[in-house]
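Supplementary Text 2. Reproducibility record for the structural model of the 91-residue chain.

All settings were left at their defaults, and a single model was retained for analysis rather than an ensemble. We include the record here because the model underlies the residue-level annotations in Supplementary Table 4.
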Amino acid sequence: MGFRIRNWLFIKWRCKAIMSKILYSITIKGKTRTWGFDTWVDQKQEQYVDEWRKDGIEINKKLNSIPEWVVNARLTRIWCFLQDVGIVPIN
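Retained model, structure tokens:
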């Protein structure tokens, strides 16, 4: 019984930690090259996303990240579900 409670508390803590930050993909186009990277944005900073878009920065919310082996094993749906609840990390 104790293991189940600890396990549930860990999952609840993990979900809360994941839900407090959102993964975004940012693309910046320079004069000759284009750069892209992923970054975690706090909910406090999320209010600035629209301003960044108006300023010309291409920024998109990254919902899931799926490795090729998961697609080959036909486990994409379960993988996305596990990422949505916070058991599998998105990076």
